[in-house]
Amino acid sequence: xxxxxxLVTAAALLALSLGGASAKExxxxxxxxEGAYPPFNYVDTDGKxxxxxxxxxxxxxxxxxxxxxxxxxxxxxxxPALLAGKFDGIIASMSITPERKxxxxxxxxxxxxxxxxxxxxxxxxxxxxxEDLAGKTVGAQVSTMHADYVEKKxxxxxxxxxxxxxxxxxxxxxxxxxxxxxxxVVLSEWLKTEAxxxxxxxxxxxPVLEIHGPGAGVGVRKEDTDLxxxxxxxxKAIRANGKYQEINKKYFDFDVYGG
Amino acid sequence: MAxxxxxxxxxxxxxxxxxxxxxxVTVTLALATLPLGLLIGFLIAVAKNSSxxxxxxxxxxYTTIFxxxxxxxxLFLIYYGGQMAMSALWRLLFGHPFEVNSYLAGMxxxxxxxxxxxxxxxxxxxKGITVGQYEGAYALGLSRFRTMLLIILPQLVRLALPGLSNxxxxxxxDTSLVSVIGLTDLLRNTNIAxxxxxxxxxxxxxxxxxxxxxxxxxxxxxRRVSAWxxxxxxxx
Amino acid sequence: xxxIDAPSTERPPAxxxxxxxxxxITGLLLMMLWAALxxxxxxxxxxxxxxxxxxxxxxxxxxxxxxxxxxxxxxxxLGALISIPVVIGRxxxxxxxGGIAFGYSYFFRGTPLLAQTFLVYYGAGQFTDVLxxxxxxxxxxxxxxxAIFTFSLNTAAYQAEILAGAIRAVPSGQWQAADALGxxxxxxxxxxxxPQALITALRPYGNEVILMIKGSAIASIITVxxxxxxxxxxxxxxxxxxxxIWAAVIYLITVEVLRRLWEMMERRLTRHLRx
Lengths: 259, 236, 275
What we know:
The structure holds three protein chains of three kinds. Chain A has ten helices and 13 strands. Chain A is of the alpha/beta class. Chain A is globular, with a radius of gyration of 21 Å. Chain B has nine helices and no strands. The longest helix of chain B is centred in the N-terminal third of the chain and has 33 residues, at 16-48. The chains are: A alpha/beta, B mainly alpha, C mainly alpha.
């Protein structure tokens, strides 16, 4: 009995110390982003991380009065790296999806833009319904809601997933893919470039809540509920004080926050 | 043609400096892995050469695992699994996570693969050294450590060198896999260049040529080392 | 150094083997470490057994295994066919033919398989129009065929070196004896030299098959859903490290079983050569 009591006390102490650790004051927050998803995040010619996500991250840290460090991480290792403690928050246009919510937690959304389908200019694809895309090969970035959408809703199409957006764009340009599914802003930005001259926008995809979720949020570990709330509050604050609109204007001529 | 030269130019417009930096990362990664891989490989070989069955079996388990796993899978296991395990351990011990970056993960994974092959090379070199050498050293009153250092190791190097040279060339090529977990080595930077310029064939061909150049330079250097190691054999 | 004392008749030799040498202690500790590692992995796989994940990803993993098997088998067989002209070139006395064969083999053995795969897959994508005109695009459009194409060329270079080396290793007396018997060069090659060379080449061929199985994981990077590709897919959805461990177990068992079978086959085929 005595032993059991000691054990319980020890466990309680341990829980307390661990709980104390997670409720620590956040002085420095490390943030992971991808750097291959222009215009939201990309690496410029000097090798620096730039983009809407990066600017938002800096604004949020300023608002939260914490020191910030932004690091690049490959997309498919993003959530494992967060869980492993490589960084504390993900600001990489990661959508708040139910599938991801099983593993990590999210702040409120900081933007929400609809997905879209693009295809080569000479395509015979008329629209974006499952019937229009039946029998076609559709590309998307691996472990994104866009890949998920193709898999679950475009059941008659063949899905091919790529590690970064760069690769599906290559295969779209050379004709291996009949179409690709990604964020409409990312795609229309790409279509404006020389490399995107091969292709055109076929149409917008109507978001499905259980796949696409309410938009992109800041990803945090489940135990860091305090950090999650800090991010949510900071997003609200920069929306209110005009900082958000300032950054928005730098990249887009419409409000990406969405409805 | 001028267009292609421009693509390889150093500076902001071309990709020459990025590729050169990639070559540097590839070479330093291989060089950093080499001593670690050689040391582990040698220790495993000593264990395999032991008269103690328990030690031999423990060493054989090691080689069976790391020679049987695909290089890519070892890399992912170390990068994701090692990261999770080390972080959990470190947080328990020191209260902050430990970062396994792609360079470290690549180095460990490559050293595991290199050492399991190297141990076989060392083992067959051990077998090429006759018992008389040990007995002679014992007769001279040398301790076991000094016998190993002064008598066995110099002969071992000569016998193992051809096999190890081969492994070095394989190591140099295997570093390319680390590009998959985000280390900006030669292949990764090539990928980035392709993503921007769309000149896939040209850039991957350049990358392959650079790997070839690295392996040619290695071969020349290794031939020199081997000539040096064989200098006592009186056949040159 | 008590063991070099004059042998005592009272002490049975078995007693010596029970002493705790440092080698034995190290060995025991290492074996315990392996056992602990093995048990914790088994525990992790058993305790983490999730029927939902098994029904979700199990069939995918199985189909991945099948794709890997097909990929490796096709590449090895096609590689063996391609290696024949390369071997002829490597053994030829003509400097031009020999040079071409050497260049081929040096290129494919001197560059990483991953870089070669990218060169073929994305490189072909750049010449879509030419390939379409030649009717080859249907082939190169598919990542799976691109992988088979690259792997075959790659393994052909290695197989050519194995076979050429084995043929060179046959003593020249065999050629001379066959010549003295009045056999034609063709008959000499197929009836005298090759049977001996193939026996020597058996072990390196086995190693090449194993290297190909391991190397085939690279196909997953160009969107082929082989065992590694399906594993990466499942990991990217579930973030569950167990999936990688399952894949590791499958690869390990495959390679180990193959290695043992090959060893048995080799032992049987070379039983007439044993001293």
